[in-house]
Amino acid sequence: MTDKSAMDKLKGKAKEATGKATGDRRKETEGKSDQAKAKAEDKLGATGDRAKGLKDSLTDDDK
């Protein structure tokens, strides 16, 4: 998890909690959206890392 995605996830949780506490459905939804975006960024980064590892293992570029 990158620092940016971790911060986005925390901000999302805070927005969601604030929205729930104040009854602001829009803020709550924004928070959930921010968390989903952070999760997607994590998965995309992990996929890129795996692809690079696969490329390196096939071409011996890691030596």
What would you call the shape? rod-shaped
Largest sheet: none
- Written as H for each helix and E for each strand, in order along the chain, the element string is HH
What's the pLDDT, averaged over the residues?
A: 86
**β-strand amount:** under 5%
Could you give the distance between the termini? 26 Å
Helix/strand class = mainly alpha
User: What fraction, in percent, of the residue positions are helical?
Assistant: over 70%
Stretches with pLDDT under 50, minimum 5 residues: none
**Rg computed from alpha carbons, rounded to a whole number of angstroms:** 17 Å
The total of beta strands comes to 0
Number of helical regions:
2
Care to describe what's here?
With 63 residues, this protein is mainly alpha-helical. Helices cover 87% and strands 0% of the residues. It has two helices and no strands. Helix 1 runs antiparallel to helix 2. The longest helix has 35 residues. The protein is rod-shaped. The mean pLDDT is 86.
Features:
mainly alpha, 0% strand, rod-shaped
Sequence-ordered SSE layout with sheet pairings:
Layout: H1 3-22, H2 25-59
Task: Provide a concise account of the structure shown.
This protein is mainly α and 63 residues long. The chain has 2 helices and no strands.
